[in-house]
């Protein structure tokens, strides 16, 4: 748990510097320079990695791969279809057991049990899709609200992206606190994610109320990137609570999901499970873009308007908050599966691995017994010869 907290803490610390410095350069100094700085940074990082790549070579443990995982699914489905077609008795505890060699499949006990442990995480991954959609409102809907609010702070024009630092501060504070309570956290991982989802729901709901509040302020002119825009005179810091709530959610959910994904699978497929978590997070980003497009077309540009003062963006936020509320209580129904991570899941497979080894030893003993029996039938003359 400490590893994940420190990892995300360093990432967000770097993000806080980036959102303040580079966004200010892009908005107030030169727009193209704001793109040039990260480009040069990435180029330097690639050169550095290439120079030290010989010291970073890592050989993953053999025994499982993504093709093997998909093969277990395919083998189980094939055996299930064959048994169903020919009305064969194939009662097993789990449908993936059909992929085992002793049930007509092609894979060992270890591969099937590893795949079952990965399948156990899929509900967790699925409930993170809508959560990630809400998190992506910061660089989309929340930025639109900020851009249409008063960014003038005592004569200094704040960068729009600087508001993102408000959502990063909770993570920078909570990550060290949670690190010191690792033992306590490991028993309540499901509850922690549930609280994070509630915080996400409250954030999106608060965004809807603040959008209504923003429209009650008179309009003023504000220059952004050389363009004069009519924006609300409401100070942008009024939007801080929705950023804070989303930051609290990120501090609770992201490291905990990574910990669950890492601990509830055997050591040899942890890399695959982390890839699946990333895949579902990416699916949440695409779902967010899809929902925005559907809402824009379905409401004819009213729920997600081109000009906020002429539309009803708050309706979109309330709609998204209602979806997130259903998603939160759906996760609560399955959250008990992901509590108490003090015992690694590798220990749960020791029994099956031990059985395989005993079967191998039993076969070896039978083989040697047959050799001894055959040797005992040889005559003393033949033995002397």
From TrEMBL:
GO cellular component: membrane
Record's keyword terms, sorted: Membrane, Peptide transport, Protein transport, Symport, Transmembrane, Transmembrane helix, Transport
Topology in the lipid bilayer: Multi-pass membrane protein
Alphabetized Gene3D superfamilies for the sequence: MFS general substrate transporter like domains
Transmembrane portions of the chain: 7-27, 33-52, 64-86, 156-178, 184-210, 276-296, 316-334
A Pfam cross-reference name: PTR2
Gene Ontology MF terms in the entry: symporter activity
The keyword Kinase is assigned to this record: no
Record localization: Membrane
Taxonomic superkingdom: Eukaryota
InterPro entries, alphabetized: MFS_trans_sf (IPR036259), POT_fam (IPR000109)
Keyword flag Transcription regulation: no
Name the UniProt record assigns to this protein: Solute carrier family 15 member 5
